[in-house]
Amino acid sequence: MLCSGIISRKVRPMKTEHIKVAIVGCGYTKATRKLEKPETEIAIEACLMAAKDAGMDPSEIDGINVQVHHYPPPETQTIAQGIGITNLRWNQDGGLGILPAGVAAQAIDAGECNSVLVVKIMNTIAPISTPQIDPSTGRVGNWQQFEVPYGLGFSMQRVGLMARKYMHRYNIKQEQLAWIPIVQREHALMNPWAVMDSPMTLDDYMNSRIISEPVRLFDCDMPVNGAFAFLMTREDRAKELNHKPVYLKSWAGSEVTKRDQLNAEYLEGPTPLALEIYKDAQLGPKDMDLWYMYDGFSYFVPMWMENLGLIPRGEAGNYVEGGDNIRSGGEHPLNTHGGQLSEGRLHGHGHVLEAVQQLRGNAGIRQANTANTAIISSVFPWTGAAGILSVE
Question: Which letter, b or e, does each residue of 75-95 get, where b requires 16 or more Cβ atoms within 10 Å of its Cβ?
Answer without folding.
Answer: ebeebbebbebeebbbbbeeb
